[in-house]
Design goal:
Length: 249
């Protein structure tokens, strides 16, 4: 009897230590609903303060854009077979090195791309079923994110290659074919441009945002396949405050 009590005591101490270690090591849990919902992101951690206090947050409704200076955007992306991750927030493909994006003479490197359902940005108040984000980083850490609205229509061959291997639970898998990500970019389309943030914690205000006015398509089945995993992973629209939006072509 005495042995049992002692063992139980040890187990309780061990459990307490484990929970302390867990609290120290894990990031606060953020989500799209419940206790970690977007309205609470700013309170989950001091590191997430910009989510509630920032005045340059994303996404926004893209409307009343003024004519820009037609800044040149060029992509130098080659097809490759990416690692595809189900990270618990979205399906994300990692870029290999050497794919560059240039905006107005500034060079960025493609890091990763991922999806939201429904779209995060809206254009004149209109959302689309999905939005893809292509995250590019400059040498100084600043980001250029290209947003592509996805409408229901013809099946998308590049998305098909991602969905073929995308893990249904959290995990990683390598694509079994080269994917030409530039085919997911409506090049030649006008695009909106504004200064914004990451749309997930820590909501850092380091993003030069571009959202193309033209969309690409994915089939209803392709959209539903993503929605089955992530029915709602879009941050609500944020206030524009004193920012302006330009439209470039
Ligand atoms: Zn995103």
């Amino acid at each position: 009897m005495r042995t049992m009590i002692r063992r139980a005591g040890i187990a309780i101490v061990a459990a307490a230590l484990a929970s302390v270690a867990l609290a120290d090591e894990t990031h606060p849990h953020w989500a799209y609903d419940g206790e970690g919902a977007p309205e609470r992101w700013g309170t989950l951690s001091q590191d997430f303060a910009a989510c509630s206090k920032g005045h340059q947050q994303s996404p926004v409704n893209l409307t009343n854009a003024h004519a820009g200076q037609d800044v040149p955007l060029t992509l130098d992306w080659k097809p490759f077979a990416p690692m595809v991750h189900n990270n618990g927030h979205t399906i994300q493909a990692s870029a290999i090195a050497g794919n560059t994006t240039t905006l107005a003479g500034r060079t960025y490197t493609l890091q990763q791309m991922h999806f939201h359902h429904p779209s995060e940005h809206t254009i004149d108040g209109k959302a689309t079923p999905m939005e893809a984000h292509f995250v590019n980083q400059a040498a100084d850490g600043k980001l250029l994110v290209l947003g592509v609205m996805i409408e229901e229509g013809a099946p998308n061959a590049e998305i098909a290659k991602l969905w073929d291997v995308a893990p249904q639970t959290t995990g990683d898998a390598k694509a079994n074919a080269d994917i030409d990500f530039s085919k997911l970019i409506p090049l030649g389309s006008k695009f909106y441009r504004y200064a914004g943030s990451l749309t997930t914690p820590p909501c850092s205000e380091i993003v030069d945002w571009i959202v193309f006015s033209k969309s690409v398509t994915a089939s209803r089945d392709q959209i539903e396949a993503f929605a089955k995993l992530y029915p709602t992973n879009n941050r609500p629209l944020q206030a524009l405050h004193d920012r302006t939006i330009s439209i470039e072509r």
